[in-house]
Design a protein that fits this description.
14 helices, 28 strands, alpha/beta, 6-stranded parallel beta sheet, single chain, 504 residues, 6-stranded mixed beta sheet
Amino acid sequence: MSMKNSKTRVIMIQGTMSGAGKSLLCAGLCRIFAKDGYRVAPFKSQNMALNSYVTKEGLEMGRAQVMQAEAAGVAPEAAMNPILLKPSSDVGSQVIVNGVPVGYMSAREYFEYKKTLLPEIRKAFDKLASENDIIVIEGAGSPAEINLKDNDIVNMGLAEYLDAPVLLVGDIDRGGVFAQLYGTVKLLDPKEQARIKGLIINKFRGDVTLLDSGIRQIEELTGIPVAGVVPYTHLLLDDEDSLAPELTVRTHQKPVDVAVIRLPHISNFTDLTPLSESEILGVRYVERAGDLERLPDLIILPGTKNTIGDLKWLRETGLFSSIQKAHKAGTVICGICGGYQMLGEEISDFCKAESETPCTVQGLGILPVRTSFSLNKTRTLTEATVGEAPISGELKGAKIRGYEIHMGETKVLGEPFAMLPDGKREGCTEKNAFGTYLHGLFDTGEMTEALERYFCTKKQIPCKAAPIRDYRDIKEEQYDRLAAELRKSLDMKKIYEIMGIKRD
């Protein structure tokens, strides 16, 4: 292989809409380029997502770029996602720049503020460019959102700023893919249209030859070649946001019923993805009190970007009392991060981190803990070992590899859930409930296996499930599978040519 010169090459994936498959396509391309011998890194200038991650430096970034970095075989770093927006309400978000929170802003406030962020974006990109041969750039939403085109820093504005060729992907699974592609292209300025070097049809099911006539017509209408048709492929990889299909799962056929509360501001629900490997634990998402009429074996309250607001929602929906009743009836209750805070006796927000006025609100009262919010944010990677107390010692010794992202401190009046390497206590447990700040608590597989053993014994059912593998190993297989599928369905020679790389 050879490159025309030493300049770092770039390719940008933009979509006709959110959920078109940009993140996974970028991950697959990262894997392909890495396997082909190039140093490669992902980049997304601005990401809006509630699924985030902490780097080894203690900086926060979106999980989509973490996934892409893993696919590329490199360590995630904040430069790959210099701006992260974490919606905390319908009209505002926490703004994180280079991994550090800078405050909360309304949509209009951020629209004005983002003009000042181009130097930070350029600095982050230049850092990656100095260390890599190829940068795979992901856009956001659609470049045809004409009301947002002024001062764009994530789609065509960024593509022009970085002189990046673009591949435009449409989602045929939702229908109307040719209209998606044509409409997106034609809403762009001529110079922006010229920057699109290829179209991709994603999530196709069936006989690909049935698309032949449509492909010919869309190429004639747009003047842009179709670079590939990617089949619908189910992968056990992290989804970026609330469009994730697993959040719509309402039923399952597995013997142990795990009900996850789908909070309005649910965050880091990727914590639960590894549970899909279990043959015993069946996960479903619930939003109504009626969804808990069939008493679950385990209820999980996941993370949230608005703990107080979602606690209010629990009361309004009747889930608040339903969770308390389930707990009293013997259901095991697990809270992660914001969910852990909700399980406590009270939450105080005197610094107005989430509330307009200082306040103290009552929690579910299931765990003997009290949380006080602060404006300082804890961001750290860590490991832990589950202690003796959770569920009568049934989880003892399970190893956890996780990370903390939360605002506030929690005073624990009960037994710890786990122990950290430095001897400090983490989380809290009491009887059939436990809470933890550790995201990723199921990644090693040890917590999952411990829960399987516990519930099989409790329900007196056979426990012959296959060993749960470490989620890191599972993801490596998934990245290879994704890359293999893209090699078959995309014109990789053409994509390399678009980037100015000559392959021998």
